[in-house]
Every structure is written in structure tokens, then in C-alpha cells.
Inverse folding.
């Protein structure tokens, strides 16, 4: 039991999530690193920050891919939502210029806009989804590899009694 506790405990990285972007509606994520040094550290800087192990390379690659995926996602939705809001505003301006101010005519104008928007964006959305899935699978693969390396390290330390 003690071995399992040591194997699955230890420093954890935290992800800090901010409020959603007003247009993309994507919440920014700040990735924190788990400290491997104890609180008795007397050096003013983290010397582990510059560790040269291959494990750190894997963690760095994971972090970079996570940030690339976030940026890809944010950029797509920022562009898509900006164009959507602009198109919706133009549709509403045409409705106001039409003269028929009834709620029913507004619903018809918006319904036509939404339908046209969905058809217009279907191909772009499909390409985005395919690319997002590809990038997300890479992030999952890297995260699994990183976690396996951490478990191996913990198991080795636990078995050696460190």
C-alpha cells in the first residue's frame, strides 16, 4: 500500500484557467510545472528549470503541443465568431431597412442567415474538426508518454527506497 501511495503521489502540475475570450469564447489556460524540489530549497532560482534529461524534452514537447492546440482552437473560433457576428449584424441591418419590424420577420431573416451560415461553413468546420482531432491525438499521446515516464520514475524511487 505504501508503494502505491508513493507511486501515485508527488508534485502535480496545475492548470490555471482564465475567463473566456469575449469573441472566441475559449478560456485561456496557463500551464504550471510541478516542482520536483522540496521546500528546503535555498537557491533563489529553480535549478531544475534547466535540467537536461530526455524526460524534460518530452514534457517540453507536450507543453508546446498543448499551447499550439490551444492557439489553433482559439484562432479558428475567433475568426469564425467574428465573421458570424459581422454577418448576423448585416442581416439585422437589412431587416431594419426592410421596414417590416415584426418579430416574425426578424425570426425569418435570422433563420435564413443561420441556415446560409451553416451551409457556407460546413466545409471549413469539417477541415477544422479533422485537424483538431489530429492535433489532439498527438497531445494525448505525448501526455500518456509523459505520465508513463513519471510512473516509471516513481516506481524506481519507491523500489529503491528513496
Amino acid at each position: 500500500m505504501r508503494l502505491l501511495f508513493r507511486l501515485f503521489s508527488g508534485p502535480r502540475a496545475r492548470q490555471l484557467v482564465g475567463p473566456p475570450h469575449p469573441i472566441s469564447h475559449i478560456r485561456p489556460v496557463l500551464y504550471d510545472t510541478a516542482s520536483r524540489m522540496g521546500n528546503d530549497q535555498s537557491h533563489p532560482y529553480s535549478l531544475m528549470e534547466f535540467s537536461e534529461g530526455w524526460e524534460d524534452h518530452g514534457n517540453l514537447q507536450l507543453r508546446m503541443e498543448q499551447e499550439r492546440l490551444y492557439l489553433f482552437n482559439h484562432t479558428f473560433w475567433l475568426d469564425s465568431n467574428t465573421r458570424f457576428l459581422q454577418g448576423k449584424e448585416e442581416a439585422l441591418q437589412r431587416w431594419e431597412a426592410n421596414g417590416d419590424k415584426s418579430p416574425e420577420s426578424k425570426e425569418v431573416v435570422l433563420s435564413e442567415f443561420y441556415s446560409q451560415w451553416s451551409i457556407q461553413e460546413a466545409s471549413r468546420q469539417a477541415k477544422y474538426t479533422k485537424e483538431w482531432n489530429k492535433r489532439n491525438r498527438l497531445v494525448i499521446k505525448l501526455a500518456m508518454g509523459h505520465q508513463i515516464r513519471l510512473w516509471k520514475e516513481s516506481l524506481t524511487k519507491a523500489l529503491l527506497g528513496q
Observations:
- The chain has one domain: 2-35+55-160.
- Residues 2-35+55-160 form one domain.
- The longest strand covers residues 15-17.
